[in-house]
Design a protein that fits this description.
Strand content: 15-25%
CATH superfamily of the largest domain: Cupredoxins -  blue copper proteins
Strand order of the largest sheet: 3-2-1-5-8
CATH topology of the largest domain: Immunoglobulin-like
Oligomer: single chain
Radius of gyration: 26 Å
Structural class: alpha+beta
Largest sheet: 5 strands, mixed
Length: 319
């Protein structure tokens, strides 16, 4: 899948290049930013010029600047024209951003929770499969995101792909995003939501349509288990993992934490802040709070080292 399936390279750095849009819903926002910056500089230059002439000893300029005509032009007509033009330009430029979703458009439901992201892919309005902390979409296709919250107010933002939008408890807000080209785009919660707010990130991975179709087909399958699958599943149950996590195709059906069916195919863990690799996973299982303070994942340091190793190996097989 174009080298994006599960590389061990670190996640893209934060902050991302916000004014380097990678999709049609982000481009108008970057354009408006540059246009407004240029307009602000122009207005500032005009004010400086007026101030310069007002301070000159030439009485004609002082008389003109203080006249009712100058006040009418500079204090009323000029602001009305500039602000009206800005309003019309802004509404016209952002028309695509606020366009209603087309019937049958691909939909993904994202639920913000303390402090991770539940991601549910929908088919005909119904859940198709669930993942967490990583979103994959096809390039060149608008995707409608149904944004919800499972507890407090969160905010969903992928700077290079579009605007940010709050996730309000009890409401569903709609946001549309599209990526022009394959890539990995960093996202972040941008509404303070508690102790681990700054560590509530995610990645949006844009794939070629064919690669996305292959990935989606694989995600809909039950978990693929390797050697010692039965023994590892039993340990997963007795250790209490199944009380919070679900692994499709097994008896684990917990709904409190992330779905782990295809955990090993994800690039990161801990909600986008850590690279998903064996050593990090073992540390996470033993003491998640040492890697992500305030994380609700309990510590399993009390388990024998052999059991921790077996759990880690089991999760690494969940492709």
């Amino acid at each position: 899948m174009s080298g994006i399936a599960k590389p061990n390279a670190p996640a893209p750095s934060w902050p991302p290049p916000t004014l380097d849009p990678a999709g049609p819903f982000a481009a108008p926002l970057a354009e408006i930013t540059f246009v407004m910056l240029a307009m602000g500089c122009a207005v500032f230059a005009i004010v400086l010029a007026v101030l310069f002439f007002a301070l000159r000893r030439d009485g004609r300029w002082r008389t003109f600047i203080g006249s009712p005509r100058a006040v009418l032009i500079g204090g009323f007509a000029f602001p009305v024209i500039v602000l009206s033009a800005s309003l019309v330009y802004g509404l016209w430029t952002t028309a695509r951003v606020t366009e209603a979703p087309a019937p049958g458009e691909m939909r993904v439901r994202v639920i913000g929770e303390m402090w991770w992201w539940r991601v549910i892919y929908l088919q005909d309005g119904q859940p198709s499969f669930e993942t967490a902390n990583e979103i994959r979409i096809p390039t060149g296709t608008p995707v409608t995101f149904e944004l919800q919250s499972g507890d407090v107010i969160h905010s969903f933002w992928v700077p290079r792909l579009g605007a940010k939008l709050d996730m309000i408890p009890g409401r569903t807000n709609i946001l549309r995003l599209e990526a022009d080209r394959p890539g990995i785009y960093r996202g972040q919660c941008t509404e303070f939501c508690g102790a681990a707010h700054a560590l509530m990130a995610f990645e949006l991975v844009a794939l070629d349509p064919a690669d996305f179709a292959s990935w989606r087909e694989a995600q809909m399958r039950p978990a693929a288990l390797g050697a010692n699958g039965d023994q590892a599943r039993a340990l997963f149950q007795t250790a209490g993992c199944a009380a919070c996590h679900s692994v499709r195709g097994t008896d684990a059906n917990g709904a409190i934490g992330p779905d782990l069916t295809h955990f090993a195919s994800r690039r990161t863990l801990g909600a986008g802040i850590l690279t998903n690799e064996p050593e990090t996973l073992r540390h996470w299982l033993a003491d998640a709070a040492s890697l992500k303070p305030a994380a609700r994942m309990p510590s399993y340091a009390q388990l024998p080292a052999a059991d921790l190793e077996a759990l880690a190996l089991y999760m690494e097989q969940l492709q």
